Amino acid sequence: MRYLGSVEHVLERLARERDPGMAPATSIFLLILLVSVTAFTSPLPLRPGSFLPLLMAIALSSASRELGAFLKLAGMVSFFLAVVSLPLLFTTPGTAFWTLRLGPLKLSATWNGALQALAFALRCLNAICLAVAWTSYVGFNSLIRGLHAIDPTGTIPSMVFLTTRYVPLSIREAQKLIAAREARTLREPRLNTTWLLLASSCGDLLLRAFHRAWKVNLAMKSRCLSGSLTSLTSLKDCFRLGTRDVLWALLALAYALVMVLRVI
Amino acid sequence: MSREVLSCRGVWFRYPDGTEALRGVSCSIHQGEVTVLLGPNGAGKTTLLLVLAGLLEPSKGQVLFRGRDVRELGPELRKHVGLVFQDPDDQLFCPTVFDDVAFALRQIGLPEEEVRIRVLDLARELGIEHLLDKAPYRLSYGEKKKVAIATVLIYGPEVLLMDEPTASLSPRYVRFLEELVAEGVDSGRTFVIATQDVDFAYEIADYAYVLVEGRVEAEGRPGELLSDPGLLEKAELREPRKLSEILLKRTGLAELPGRP
Predict the structure, then answer these.
(1) Would the pTM count as exceeding 0.90?
(2) What ipTM goes with this model?
C-alpha cells in the first residue's frame, strides 16, 4: 500500500503545472536529446563522466525542489535494476570469482558479468533519473504541450494527457481493492501477502479501473466545452523560443558532446 | 408560466449488458425551477441525468434543449448543461484542485490570467480557496463535493444536473447546498436533482418525478407526491419530516403526552 502510495505521490508531483520558462518544444526535444544520449552512451570504463548524468539529475531536482521525491525514486529504480541485471552476472562468459551450486545446476559469477551488469544498471539509472529530473523541472504538462511539435494532429498528446489522468486513477483503485481485501484477511499485512493480494486482484482491478475510466471520460467530456479534448497550446506557442531556450539548448549540446566524445 | 428548457420524450436506454435503464421516460424541465428525480436505487435516475446531459445517447426517444434535438446541438449543449456526478472521484481527475476547477475554462482557450481570476473568485465564493493547491483525492468527502460543484459552476451553465448531491454528507453541507440552489434559482438557473433524500427534495423542489424501474411512476408537486403512502411504498421512499410534523399538528397527535 505504501509502495503504491509513493508511486502515486511521485506521479502527482510530476503532473503538477509548472512554468519552466521555456517553449514546450524545447522541453520535449531536450528531453529526447538528454535521455537518448545518456541511454546510448556506454558509461564503461567507469570514469567521472559516468556519474555526470546523475549529478545533472540531482541539480535539476534541487532546482525544482523535488530532491526528496527524486532520491526516493532513484533508490527504488536502483533496487529494480539490481534485480533485473543480476542474470548478466552469471550469463556473461569470463573468469569466475564465485560459484553457486543449486543441485545439478552450477552458476558461475564472472568479473565480465559484474562489469556488464554494472554498466547496464548504471546506464538505465542515469537515463531514468535524468528523464525524471527533467520532467520534474519542466513539468509533465509542458512536455505534453511540446508533443504537439512532434504530432501536430494532437493524437499522441491527447493519449499521453489521458494516460497521466488514468494511471493515478488505476493506482487509487488498486489501493482501495487491496485495502478492502487486507481488511478481511484478518492477519498482519506483510509485503509478500500484499503482493499476493495484488496479483489475485488483477482481473478485478482491470474491470474496476475500466469502469472508473468510463465515468471519468464522461466527466471529462461534459467539461470539454468545445466538443473534444482540446490541446492547450498551438503550434506557434510550442515554438515560442526565448533566451532561456537557447541557453538550455547550448547546455544540452555541451552535455551531449561530453558524453559522446568521452571528454571526462 | 415558466419556459421549458430541457425535455425528453419517450426515452429508452439500454446498457451493453442488456439492462434496460430507461423505458419510455418523458419529462419536462422548466427554466428557473428545481426539478427532483426521486426513486429507489436502480430506478434510472443517474442514467436519465446522463441522457439529459447529452453524454449517453438514448436507444429510442428524443432529448430536447430549448426545442432543439441535443443530437443536432452536439457539444454545444455542454456549455448550457452542466453535470455534477454522484461520486466526486469520478468528476475530479486533475493533479490539483485549481487545475480541476480551471479545466473547462482552459478547454475553451481562455487566457491563463483570466482563468486564474475566475477560479479564485469562485473559490472565495464557495469557501474552497484554501484547497486550490491540494490534490483532489486528498480532500474530505464534503470538500470533494464542493470542488466537484465548483468545476461545473465555473463556466456558468444555465441548467445544472446534480446526482445525489446530499448522499453521505453532513447537515451543514446540506444547508450549504440548499443555499447554493436557492441563490442559483434567484439568478435564473435551472436545477435537476436526482436524490433519495426526501427532506432535501421537499425543502427545495418545485416539481418532482418519481422513477421506478426506468419508468415515470408519478409526477407533480413534491408535497402531493410525498404524501401519497402507496407511491412512497412503491418508490421505497418515506414521508418528509416536515410534512409529518405538519400532519401531526393538524391531527393534534403532536400534542399527545410523551411526544417531544
Answers:
(1) no
(2) 0.72
